[in-house]
Amino acid sequence: MSKVFPRIGRRRALQGAAAGFVAFGLLLWWLLPLGEAPPRGTITFSTGTLRGVYQEYGERLRTELAKDMPGLKVKLVQSAGSYENVQRVATGRADFTIAAADAVETYELNDGKGAGRLRGVARLYDDYVQLVVPRDSGISSVAQLRHKRVAIGLPNSGVRLIANRVLRAAGIDPAKDITPVSDGIDTGPDQLRRGQIDAFFWSGGLPTKGLLDLADKFSYTFVPIEGSLVTKLHTESEAALYYRATNMPESAYPSIQAGTTVPTIAVSNVLMTRKDMDPRLTEWVTRTVIKSRDDIGNHVHSAQLVDLRTAIYTDPLPLQEGARRYYRSVKP
Fold first, then answer.
1. Burial of residue 27, with CB atoms counted within 10 A of its CB: 0-12 exposed, 13-18 middle, 19 or more buried
2. Are 100 and 268 in contact (CB under 8 A)?
3. Second label for 218, Cα 20 to 30 Å away, from 2, 72, 75, 157?
4. What is the pTM of this model?
5. Helices (H), the chain
């Protein structure tokens, strides 16, 4: 058989190739908004402590952003947690971050520098307050933490905000009635295992890797935080209105919970930036956050809860213009 196309065959082949290039071009136009090249440059993303969900989510999101915006460099910076994250973005020391809604509200109520510039990008997932004690401790209520050594989180962390409020609502002065210890999820589990503390507070997505790792080598349990305590919290602080009474599902830490739920507090997390951030960049970041939910969720379980229908509810922050553009573009 001849390897030379007949004249009509070559013409059709060229026409087919041209049509293929046009189709490919249309596909690129669809994937890249307005046919524009992806944003470039460098941004700083403030995460959280090692072994915490903020840190892991930040690492996974950086990977996804690199796929969509190969010319964008994302610098991850560890932090104490929510409150420090809010401070960093508000004052320009970071460009994007995750923070719990109560920490954002607290910063605004405290008239923190740059608070008026803060804007929301997406509601992500809920943090759950996890109060951990050794299984044989005999501690079964928050009130029984009196005179105990309790890790209440790092300074400027969202954990510390919540821990102090919960303790006060239970009639415990964090400065006088306990021995407060500044441990987070990076050090708290080992401190508990070694008997250096009697309990520690953690607020994070479910499950948190630091607690999964602890379950492999130490027997612990969760102290319930009852709904009546949450109701009392609501009367004591405007920021506490972002807390809701819920149950930690039995599937969070199966080997620890043995099929039982745990009454506790949940608070939503918000991906945030500033009003002056480039709207086009923010629009691209928002798109990546939504479309990468499943890929990130394969590694960070709580990220599976990111949902387009609820992502726009970034209270107490208004949406950043770029995020607003994205949600409008995908509105049915």
1. exposed
2. yes
3. 157
4. 0.86
5. 7-31, 53-68, 82-90, 101-109, 158-169, 188-193, 209-215, 227-234, 254-257, 279-291, 293-297, 308-311, 321-329
